[in-house]
Amino acid sequence: MSFGASPPSGGRQGAFRGVRQQGGDAATIQSCAALLVVTEPDLTVIQASDNASLFLGIAQDVTTSSLAALGGDLHDCVRKCLGRPLDGAPLVQRCRVGDARRECDLLLHRPSSGGLVIELEPAGPAVDLSVQIKGALDNVLSLDSVERLSDVSAAVFQELTGYDRVLIFRFDEAGYGQVIAERRKAGVASCLGQHFGDSEAPPNAHLLIERNRVRHLVDAHEPPVLVRPTGGADAALDLDLSRCTWRSFSPLHLQFLGRLGVRGTLVAPLSVGDRLWGLVVCHHRTPRFVHYPVRAACELLAETVATRITALEAAAETAAEARIRGVEARLIAAISRHGDWRPGLTDDGALLAGPIAATGAVVAYDGQIDTYGETPSEGRLREILEWLDARARKAVLAASVVGDEQASEGHLGPSAYALLAAPLSSADGEYLLWLRSAAAEGLGRHAGSASSTAFAAHPSQWLGHGSMGAAMLTTGRLLPRWSTLDRITARLLGEAVGDVIQQFRAVRVLIAQAQLAQAKSKLELASQPVLIADAQGAVLCTTPAWDATPGLAGKRLEVLQDLASLCIEAADVERHLRELVTLQRAWRGRIRLRGDDAATGRYLARADAVLAAPGRVLGLVVILTRTFEQAETQPSDPALGELAQGQAAGADAVSGRYSCISSLIADNRTQVARALTRQGDATEDAARCSGVERSATHALELLDRLIAYGRSGSRSRGRDAEE
Fold it and tell me: CA-CA 20 to 30 A from 201: which of 98, 259, 486, 651?
């Protein structure tokens, strides 16, 4: 592949600083051309490449010379173009330069740095490419799939340019790419299927390609030529070379080409809408110069291919949407029948794998993994999910993976897969995965001489990550390719299932909120003080009875441990509550609350952790129950207090055989209450205490009535005796 200079980061403007002459850093161009920078309107040279005089065939130095003094008709050709738009792509004219009137092609444009840039290159023979271009366009426009279009485009570009190898390269959403089509001469190594990371295709290079549509490198081994200021007021001009056809290439990219055994390259972008879809990359083992007419024809064909890709992808998306509608209906029906969407996919794995014709499919959701067909082990799948989580999230990702065995050098092994992944949500580990087995298609053979493939044990080393060598996961047609329809279907399936999941979760939230509101309304009717906290001890809510309890009323608790400060036994209560939060250790005990009037209230406290599953805590609950001693000394109901006083007065007035019955009832009630407060279930104890209270009270009422009846009888007999 051939990219421009590798500029530093810093946004769109910063992307071009790596191809500017700044400070003492000299800009460079390829030695096959010459470059001049002139002022307007006098057309005086202020910067020039070191080879300018040699290229022009003149003995004099071009420093501070006017174009008119350089011979030929260069001055006249440039003067005629000054009124034309020159801020975009270079304008190309044929002219004669130097005293020998050497025929050259002139490329003219105005850079953002100012001045007028003139590039001169050798002119080729006149050639008529109309028939060849028309035949290529007819061929390209008749194809009905992106895969076939890519294969044919590679053949068309090779026939037009004569390069040893032509690659069709496709980028994913993160800027990583893969060779999806190839045409090569005999004896040339294959790059088909290889993945290239950001070290081979720098993201900023995409911006440079947008500015200079076709990039051409004649000889990677030829040293570049400096472009120097010629002195004077404009010597410090910050020269912008981003639109220059013959600017040199970065050392990083030249090293990359050297590893591939490539010396000459030509690259044309495939832009679909406002995104760089891919590249047409031409490689040659020896230096190769391509004249302007062929370069222009390549740019024309690349634009046509990109337009055709747009149409084919739109048609593929329409076809995929028709398939997805049936899947959505199936998922919604599964929710109605089972209360979950997953059975709609897992009950019939063909519903998931069928639209993409995969040999295996995986649904990873909410920590669970469901598989269909031929897939790696669950352990390997979880490694793949971890690797996917570590990458930038995108609509669909294609990669190559190894199964459970360790593949040897040059072999993929029996369980190599092509992977297609679509996220279901932004949560980690939630994806739809499709896999195609190389063995199922008889593709798991030796890699051959193209490039050995070394797979490591961890996915970060065998899933298209890293630089040259480790990034090249496949060679030749070792793994099946995912078609454009496959990718679009995967993306739409991921989006459709993701939408159903969000709807499903939204419904669950609504149901949970309704259940919470209903539970809260019932909890508010509880007569006991109750506090509810989350698993970390943060207080969520309290009952009205809690808020009305003396010692608790008006005290806002942020966390559960704040309750300890309201108790006389603060240290002991704080310890038990801390163990409840950290260890989920239940606690039963008596507490005394500090009242506003310094009086104390006695309660039996029950504190428990509510577990949804082993190791998973939903929350914490504290329930307070009045002890019986408190009920005797501080009745909450004034009417009951008056009744108790009346019962005591009645007991004091009892004589004869009824004198000890009231004491026996009261003693029995106290003993039962004390026994119950020593039991475990505070809620059940409270109900029992309440029952004992009602029974004892009723017994004392009956005794009081019996005594009153006896007394009334005695008074009646006394009156009869008097009479």
Answer: 486
Whether residues 355 and 369 share a domain: the answer is yes
What pLDDT, on a 0 to 100 scale, did the predictor assign at position 150?
A: 93
Instruction: Return d(Cα 688, Cα 676) in angstroms, integer.
Output: 8
Same domain? For 146 and 210 the reply is: yes
DSSP structure string for 50-92: TTHHHHHT-SS--TT-BGGGG-BTHHHHHHHHTTS--SSSPEE
* Alpha helix stretches (DSSP H) within 454-593: 459-462, 484-523, 544-548, 570-583
**Nearest-5° Cα angle at 284, 279 to 285:** 140
Of 592, 611, 626, the domain-final residue:
626
pLDDT at 204 over 50: yes
The pair of structure tokens assigned to 305 is 């291919």
Give the residue among 369, 366, 392 at the shortest CA–CA distance from 379. Answer: 369
Per the structure block, which two tokens stand in for 714? 């005695």
Burial 269-307 (b: 16+ CB within 10 A, else e): bbbbeeebbbbbbbbbbeebebebbbbebbbebbebbbe
CA diameter of the chain: 167
The first and second tokens of residue 685, run together, are: 């104890």
473 and 343 in a common domain? yes
Amino acid at 599: A
| Mean pLDDT calculated for residue range 122-130 | 89
Query: Is residue 511 situated within a structural domain?
Result: no
| Helix and strand counts by DSSP (H, E) for the chain | 19, 25
For residues 640 and 612, membership in a common domain is answered with no
Q: Domain holding 614: CATH number?
A: 3.30.450.20
Mean pLDDT of 220-236: 74
224: left (phi over 0), alpha (psi -120 to 50) or beta: beta
Distance between CA 418 and CA 405 in Å, rounded?
A: 16
Residue in 250, 238, 240, 244 with CA at minimum distance from that of residue 23: 238
Q: Is the same domain home to 499 and 458?
A: yes
- 716 belongs to a structural domain: yes
**Residue whose C-alpha is closest to residue 536's, from 559, 555, 553:** 559
Domain that holds residue 344: 339-506
Report how far residue 195's alpha carbon sits from residue 176's, in angstroms, rounded to the nearest whole number. Answer: 7
- If asked whether residues 592 and 466 sit together in one domain, one would say no
370-390 tens-digit pLDDT: 888 888 888 888 888 988 888
Q: What count of residues does the chain have?
A: 723
Q: For residues 79 and 611, what is the distance between their CA atoms, to the nearest angstrom?
A: 85
CB 563 within 8 A of CB 556: no
Cβ atoms of 90 and 292 within 8 Å: the answer is no
Q: Are 609 and 537 members of one domain?
A: yes
In a domain, 473, yes or no: yes
Give yes or no for residue 57 having a pLDDT over 70.
yes
Domain count for the chain: 4
One domain, residues 260 and 368 = no
